[in-house]
Every structure is written in structure tokens, then in C-alpha cells.
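W.,

You were right to be curious about this one. When I first looked at the sequence I had no strong expectations either way, so I just let the prediction run and decided to look at it fresh. Below is the sequence, 512 residues in total, followed by the output.
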Amino acid sequence: MHTVVVEPTGTRAEDVLAVARGGARTELSAAAITALTGAREVIDALAAKPEPVYGVSTGFGALATRHIGPGLRAVLQRNIVRSHAAGMGPRVEREVVRALMFLRLKTVCSGHTGVRPEVAQAMADVLNAGITPIVHEYGSLGCSGDLAPLSHCALTLMGEGEAEGPDGTVRPAAELLAEHGITPVELREKEGLALLNGTDGMLGMLLMAIDDLETLYKSADITAALSLEALLGTEKVLAPELHAIRPHPGQGASAANMLAVLTGSGLTGHHIGDAPRVQDAYSVRCAPQVAGAGRDTLAHARLVAARELASAVDNPVVLGGGRVESNGNFHGAPVGYVLDFLAIAAADLASIAERRTDRLLDKNRSHGLPAFLADDPGVDSGLMIAQYTQAALVSEMKRLAVPASVDSIPSSALQEDHVSMGWSAARKLRTTVANLTRVLAVELYAATRAIELRKGLTPAPATRAVLAAVRPAGVEGPGPDRYLAPDLGAAEEFVRTGRLVAAVETVTGPLA
């Protein structure tokens, strides 16, 4: 199995995904252990002094004014984990929790947190054993870290609460640790706080959303090209010289992808009747502009994610020369903004895809296709209600595009008086990404059926590759009405797993 080595200098997005989604093992590098040891020596030295140091010998948040003596410091660290493990609501997905745990381990190993090497090793051991703490939907305000979610993870390290074993069964954490030979940790000065105080949950979800959206933006270029083809539109609007004079990188990439899909098509530019069309509708003609703007948004999100992956988010932090300083780096605004930005872009991409689908189904605008792509319109309803489903998904995405990061509710007796709501932004983006997959699946279903109804016209080679792959996958072609939900589910799976992109790339080569 692939092993990810944790270094003090940060990590890569692909390493996070390998651990979160691929079950990769984690291993601490020698440099990480050295960094952990050095930072711990600083904390131990400060703990021995009479002067209070936040997180080491004081309470937390609004309770930071109380000095905690040596006899109560282990209790202090244990208590912060127990009291902050206050999540409610549905369980968070396993991949999110694994990303959360790995990213906190990454920061712990930076040498800026003061956590002992044995605690970091226990974190790696829990990940490697496939033990997943039970984390709940609600409990993070995206400031002072993803507090409740990270606390539930720390609780498992202490052998308390419940966790999911590698077999998917939820059991007491103490039992799972014992089965895998992992000794529960006994937290010392600063360690409880260091395990809770990061933006790891929202960053993990951002990285997974970026990974999913990279496939979905290519998929959207493909479905847009198929719709253009099915509507007998013109590919001339995709000419590189047109996009060079408005040089947004994403726009040029989307146009190039669509043009690659349409190369060799016998449907584009074909006219029904005597009156040639001068221009296609906006939802067809402006597809590269809309998808391209989303691609540029995605590029900005990657930049923010890369900076976060190189960060050590904790408070206080251990700096060079034995300094320990309070700071505000735990504030989730940088991540929260791009999470909301991606939700806005994805909602608009879904909106334009739905408009193309509706055009395919309307006999007054589809240039010769039967109403609702039905076999016998009137007797058959065709894809009428598939578009209803698509519209419902888009409507929800528009609601989810309302930014979470503009909200703030003061907490901790007004000590924490401005928060990012980045966790909430991440949670709604996950729903948005899933809905976008479904919206594109409906467009794919409608466009492929419409193309097959264009008898006597030869689709592009890339389109033929899609048809050859999607039909055996359970997405059936034209015909009388049938139970539609299984077809739509198969189309969703075809898009989600990247098989749509893979089918096209057998003809076009790698898409941008």
C-alpha cells in the first residue's frame, strides 16, 4: 500500500487525497520527529516557569485569565477535549474525517505546536489502523479551528467516545485502540489545545471539492459540446482566435475542450429548413465563457489550498529562539471565501447546463427533435420529468450559493467575536458538487438521446466513443417510456467516476 511520509515543511494535495480517499498509510519522517522534539522542549521549559503562558498554564478562550498550576494541567488538557467534543447532527463522511486527522497531523509535525512525538505517532497509528472517529455535522464556526470536529478526533486518541472500525462498525474507541495495539494518549501541557486548533476540516473538504470539480469541469465541457451537436449548433464560436482576444485561461481551455470533442462532427452547422441560424442561444454559444470563469475560480482555490497546505495553523505557536506567541492564523476566512466562491461558480455551471437540457426537450427550439425526446409524444412523456429533477437540483444549488462566510455569530463570551463559518461553507459545497454531478448526468442523458435521434447524420468520433461507453453502463438510448431513475443513476455514476472524460480522451487525448 502507498505510504505518505509526513514532513515538517507541509504536504501536497495528492497526499491528503491518498490518505483520505485511498487509505494510504502515514509515516513520520526523521525531520518531523526532530521538529516535534525541539518544539516540545520549548513548551516544557515554559511550563516549568511561574509566568502564565496561554494554552500551557492558562485556561482557554474567555477563561484565559486563570493561571493553572502544574497539578491540574493534565486535567486541563483532557477537559478541553471532552468539553469541546460537543458536535451534533449526522455523522460526517469517513473521507472527510481522515482528511481532518491527516491535516492536523501535518501541522503537529511542523514543529510549531509543541506536541510530543509519541502523540503524533499515535495519530498516525489511528489513521493506519483504519479507525475513524465519529464526527458530527455541527460544531465548528470556522474560527479557533474546527473545534468540535477536531475534538471528537482527539477524544478517540484518548480512548474515549466512539469510532468506526475498519469494518465499518461503530464501537467504543478504547476497544478499537486496544485491538490494534494503540495505547491511549495522556495529554500534557498545550497538547489538547494543539489537537483542536486548526482549519483542517474545511481545508480537507476544499481539497476534495477541487479534486471532484477538476473532473466535473471537463465533464461540463463534454456535455456542452454534445448538446451543441444535438442542437445542430455551430462550432465556429469555439475558434481559438475568438478566445485569444479575451484571454481568460479557463475560457480558452473550455473552448479548446469543446472543439476537440466536436472535431469531425457531421451534425454541427447542419440546418433544418430554409432559414440558416446566424447564432446559437447563449446557453450554447457562451458555454466556454461560463465554464471558463468557473475554471479560473478553481485555479484560485488551488492557490489558496496550496498556501494552507504549507501553513502551520495553531494558537499559540512555537517560533524560533524559544518564543511562543499568540496569533490569529486559525481564522478560516481565506478558506471560507474560496469554498463559497466555488459554490457560486458550480451553481452557475449547473444553471447553464439545465438551460441547454430544456432547449433539447422543447420541440419549438430543438430544431427538429421530438417533444421531450419522446418516442411517441403524448403517449410517451420522454425526458420531461428528468428536466424537473434537474431543475430541482439547480434550484437547491442556487440556495446553497448564498455565502456562509459573510455570516458571523460571536462566541466565547465575546472573546471570539468574529468567526468565518468556513466549515459550513465546506459542508454546503459538498452538496453542491454532488448536485452538479447529477445535473451534468441529466444533460448527458438528454444530449446522447438527441444525437441518436438525428438519423442520417454522423456524430463526432469523440461522441461515438461516449455512446459506445455509456450504453453498456446502463444508460439506455431512445425508445418508449421506461422506469427512468435507474438510467439517471447510471448516468450520474458514469460522470462521477470520470468514465465520461475517459471515454472522450480515448479519441481526443488529455483534455485541459
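Here's what jumped out at me. The longest strand covers residues 3-6. And, maybe more interesting for your project: The chain has 19 helices and nine strands.

Coffee later to discuss?

I.
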